[in-house]
User: Which sequence fits this backbone?
């Protein structure tokens, strides 16, 4: 519980300083509601234990994604190979980090991506089929799921 309090203060502090300096004038009910909404939006995903860690490879066309997936399946979804292929082929800046997106909560990514990452059937280190989004075709590997 103390952890949530610390997170809450961390999110509130920048607003507190602005309000304390009276840059915005007297605090009214509207401002309090808007700040509270912003705090809830920012705090909600971090208070959830339902975060996953994942990596992805983003390519422009689906045929390239299928080709890379075949290579990964032959290697039994080796995370080291996934990272190497992400560095070489991914058009996303995360490719430089082996495709790692770090940890994120449900609702943080585009719906197609979230659907795969938070599906109870998805196993750790399993390589997805190509997932099409407005950004291109993704191969996704969930590297950690909540216990």
Assistant:
């Amino acid at each position: 519980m103390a952890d949530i309090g610390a997170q809450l203060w961390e999110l509130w502090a920048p607003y507190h300083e602005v309000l304390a300096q009276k840059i915005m004038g007297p605090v009214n009910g509207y401002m309090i509601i808007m700040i509270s909404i912003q705090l809830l939006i920012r705090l909600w995903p971090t208070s959830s234990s339902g975060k996953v860690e994942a990596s992805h490879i983003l390519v422009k066309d689906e045929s390239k994604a299928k080709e890379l997936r075949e290579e990964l399946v032959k290697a039994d979804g080796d995370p080291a190979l996934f990272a190497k292929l992400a560095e070489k082929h991914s058009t996303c800046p995360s490719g430089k980090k082996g495709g790692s997106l770090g940890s994120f909560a449900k609702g943080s990514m585009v719906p197609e991506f979230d659907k795969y990452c938070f599906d109870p059937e998805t196993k750790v280190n399993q390589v997805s089929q190509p997932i099409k989004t407005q950004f291109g075709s993704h191969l996704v590997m969930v590297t950690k799921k909540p216990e």
User: Anything to note?
Assistant: The beta strands are 52-59, 100-104, 131-133, 136-144. The chain has a mean pLDDT of 84.
